[in-house]
Design brief:
It is a single chain. By secondary structure, the chain is of the alpha+beta class. The protein folds into 2 domains: 5-90, TATA-Binding Protein (2-Layer Sandwich), CATH 3.30.310; 103-261, Ribonuclease H-like superfamily/Ribonuclease H (Nucleotidyltransferase, domain 5, 2-Layer Sandwich), CATH 3.30.420. It has helices at residues 13-22, 61-76, 86-90, 130-136, 146-159, 169-175, 182-198, 216-222, 239-242, 244-268, 278-291, 295-299, 306-311, and strands spanning 5-10, 35-41, 44-49, 53-58, 81-83, 103-109, 118-125, 162-167, 207-211, 233-236. β2 (35-41) and β3 form a beta hairpin. α5 (146-159) crosses α10. The chain binds magnesium ion. Magnesium ion binds next to β6.
Length: 314
Amino acid sequence: MNKQKTIVYKISDNVKEEMIEYFQDKKREKKPPYSIFQADEADTVITLYESGKVMFQGVSADIDAQMWKQREIFLNGKPPVEKETKEKKKEKKDTTDYYFISSIGSDEVGTGDYFGPIIVTAAYVSRKDISFLENLGVRDSKKTTDEKIIEIAPDIIKRIPHVTIILNNKEYNKNYSKDINMNKIKAILHNKALYQLLNKDNFHYDMIVVDQFAKPFVYYNYLKGLPNVVKNLTFTTKAEDKCLSVACASIISRYLFLKEIKKLSNGLGIEILKGAGTKVDEVGKEIVSEFGKEKLQDIAKINFKNTDKILNNK
Ligand code: MG
């Protein structure tokens, strides 16, 4: 039986404009009260309300919702606020043991940051490393402070086999146009890191775990046509809390990102900030006034909305 799903969240004005344009030819004739349009996209019915609330309904609702969520993150640096639906509350708990196993895991950093590269690491943690990592205090890596990361990452880098892929800003700006989905970039980089790690040694592992950012079939769809696609991945959300190899991958990525940001700050003599908020715009304006707008090409993700705000002094 096909499962009907409903996903509701609120989007920003710029995404709203894009949606209106995108669904121009897919609109239904009639629309519900207070809505701008109701439209069909394959098996999903999409309703955009004047308030900015958007509702996705149907068996493929999650795919369309995910796509527009990515546009929101891409353009505005953070995901839309999701309303809890009944189905969501009922979602069953994942009880898989990701902790006391030997695993390969990957995680990335920098996809929501205007300045700095995108960094993806894949790491291998054997059962034998568990106590070493516990002694270092590797646990909930999202809650780990930058100071702690700087303290423990060098030890992890020395002991834990890993591969890191860095996509610098020049390359990002050259290859990734406005319309590419950030999730596709992530999929390509995760796959690359995992593939290279698997080819480094004959690791014994129980599972390859990826911090889930897209539904598995969507992930593999992004990799269609590429050689060397790593299969048999286990996707789970909040993987860095559950799985030590993902936690290590996250810590190493974050450590290298912090180093990049520091290097940038030192090079420019201006303190570079993480994220994509209004303070980041201020830093950007300072950089442009001192070094010219071309500088942004080398150090920032040009397709982020920040660029417009920096250059047009908004
Ligand atoms: Mg992640």
